[in-house]
């Protein structure tokens, strides 16, 4: 009998799924901000931009969370682009005074950090 256990922990990308959830909430908030005429940013370029960028962040996090077949370099590149998307959307949300979206991007940033530091590699 060997000293290792036959029971393995499931591979899950919890950090990436947190980014998916936060960016989905951000996309809903941004969509509301686009059409809410009482907020001062309705139908503006910036409102549309943060809506689109929230959706792109969600798509990139889905790719990482589903462990789709990507090389290590492609996963690293996607993780860096995801970080830039989160930060860019957060900065735009700050300038648009879309505070709920800014908080959502803060949560997404925490999820990104968890993904980079603690999530298992799909090859583990």
From TrEMBL:
The keyword Transmembrane helix is annotated on this UniProt entry: yes
Residues spanning the membrane: 12-35, 41-69, 81-114
Top-level taxon of the source organism: Bacteria
Keywords for this protein: Membrane, Transmembrane, Transmembrane helix
Keyword presence, Membrane: yes
Protein name: Uncharacterized protein
Organism annotation: Jiella avicenniae
């Amino acid at each position: 009998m060997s000293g290792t256990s036959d029971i393995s922990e499931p591979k899950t990308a919890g950090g990436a799924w947190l980014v998916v959830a936060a960016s989905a909430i951000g996309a809903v908030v941004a969509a509301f901000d686009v059409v809410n005429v009482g907020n001062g940013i309705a139908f503006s370029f910036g409102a549309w931009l943060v809506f689109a960028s929230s959706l792109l962040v969600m798509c990139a996090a889905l790719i990482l969370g589903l462990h789709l077949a990507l090389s290590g370099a492609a996963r690293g590149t996607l993780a860096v682009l995801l970080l830039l998307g989160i930060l860019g959307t957060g900065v735009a949300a700050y300038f648009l005074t879309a505070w709920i979206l800014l908080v959502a991007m803060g949560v997404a940033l925490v999820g990104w950090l968890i993904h980079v530091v603690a999530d298992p590699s799909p090859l583990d």
